[in-house]
Amino acid sequence: MKVLAFVSLIILDFAVGIPLHMFYPYGPTNGDARLPAVDDGSSSEIYINTAFNFFGNSHRSLFVNTNGDVTFLSPLITYSPAAFPYQQNTKIIAPYWGDVDTRNGGDIWFRETHDSGLLQRSSTEIQSVFPEQTEFNATWIFIITWSNVAFYGADRHGKHRRCTFQCVLVTNGIHSFVMFNYYKMQWTTGDASGGDSSTGLGGIPAQVGFDAGDGEHYYAVQGSRTSDIINVPQKSNIGIAGKFIFRVDMVTVEQATLINECDNQICQNEGTCEDLDGLSRWRCNCLPGFTGIHCETDINECASSPCQHSGKCLDLLNAYRCHCRNGFTGNSCQIDINECGSNPCMHGATCRDKANHYLCDCQSGYIGDICQIDIDECQSNPCYNNASCIDKTPGWDCACLPGYTGIRCQTEIDECQSNPCENNGTCVDLVDGYECLCTNESSGLHCEKWMNHCSSSTCLHDGMCINQYGGFICKCLESWYGERCEFREINRTQICTDLEYTECSCFTHQLKPKPKSNKLLIGSIGSIIGLFMTLIFYTTWMLLNTPNNKSNRVDPEKTKLFPDNQTMKNEKISELIDKNKSPVGSDMRQKKHHNCFTDHSGFDFSKLYVNKDGSKRIIKCRHQRDA
């Protein structure tokens, strides 16, 4: 009896099937074997260590064929897919029976595995779509993957069309299941089966299903050997596009039960259940404010700490409310209230906004929360030396007493610094003043006055007193000299005496009075010594020339002061100055103009002498005048 079972297909909107990461792991990194790159090839017989039941028959070996199928008992190299049932004793599992040619590209991988993780995965998937298999635990898996394979006869354009699909055999030694996984299917037919070499479409498209090999029992997926089979990645019998699961250990193929996963699910808090594509896939769509698999959890909107600046969060249904600290506002207390907005700080202070308060940075001279207090800077008595403190804003000033200076009047002014005392006076610094200690030669506030020595010391004989530092000098009239003009230049030469004049005035040309000095003293001493030596010489001479008897007494006429020739000279001079003959004596006007004597009565004789040193001396003589 023929049994033709058709799977109810669910056409999905997806352009591709399941992603590759939902495939069972394959490839060389997972220990897979690889079929050689041939056309219409097959593996050798592969012995398996767990019996696989297929349509009621147990098998211990299988063949992996190039053209998209797995067979028992014998390989299958037929490239054009035939309708089921196929020929006797050909037991076929056909995930995509078509004319595959791996010489144009692609690989075929296969392996037997007992990996515990994969066994658990497959068991869960089977249990989810076969409710009666809740106790099923897989013990063996065989995975065959056609990865990116091309079709036979593809030209340069057709070589870019590829197919990737997978067949997974699962059993526990009793119950057997087969999974088909599809990623991208871009061709259906090889060139030898009437397909287009550029598109891989047309001709006799691929076959998908199972054949018991008894000519009676088989199963074909809807769309097999038609152009619609290219859409198999968009179809499923379990609600996941590109994935199929079948039970194959009985005489008929049993398809998975497509159940409404939401039938037994209760979504709480008015959540709605949504049945999803896939195995045991459903979802509760929760109302705002709830979460969890069954919408059983009220979302704590405060969990994310939405309230800023230490605001307290109140959880509401799908909302929250922030109780802000003083100084903050906004839905999340995100706004810092500007407490400086009202300009609370006084006297030019700078306001600094803080959380729920403000700080005033006061200008110098002010204190207080809002800088309202004017500081009395004089309170600390900053001024020295009894100075007066003047409070200012900011700061203070010191009004110094006379004699002090400095910011704090700490420095005593040195009034002597300007050297106010004159004439070697000594300055004594006082507070707000000074005193000059003058020498004996000066007086006055600044010792600016010299002592007037002329007030107590006068010059004699009409001499002129000239005051000087340390003393005075007298400027004497003609013929007077000495410190006070106390001496008169009379009889300073023997000439006038020799000429028998009683008075003589002797002076040099343009003679000026000079102060008494050591030279004068030395000269006087020298004159005395010279006079003394002359007397000794004269006495000695007289003794040597005096006769011892009275007969030798000298005639007074013969004992004159000068020798005869001198006597003669004097007589001659005497003749020259005879009053009647002397031009000086006869000219009274000359006497008036040569009043060298103090009584201004003139002179009787005058003569000019030139000394060896070039100086000139005038000798003026006269007879003494009656008083």
Automatic annotation (TrEMBL):
The region annotated as signal peptide is 1-17
The NIDO domain covers 95-251
Entry's transmembrane regions: 520-544
Cellular component (GO) terms are:
membrane
Which SUPFAM superfamilies would you find in this protein's record? Answer: EGF/Laminin
Q: Which residues form the EGF-like domain?
A: 258-296, 298-334, 336-372, 374-410, 412-448, 450-486
Record key words, sorted: Disulfide bond, EGF-like domain, Glycoprotein, Membrane, Repeat, Signal, Transmembrane, Transmembrane helix
Q: Does the keyword Glycoprotein apply?
A: yes
Could you tell me where this protein is found in the cell?
Membrane
A GO term for molecular function: calcium ion binding
Q: Which Pfam families match?
A: EGF, NIDO
Tell me the protein's name: Sushi, nidogen and EGF-like domain-containing protein 1,Alpha-tectorin
Record organism:
Mytilus coruscus
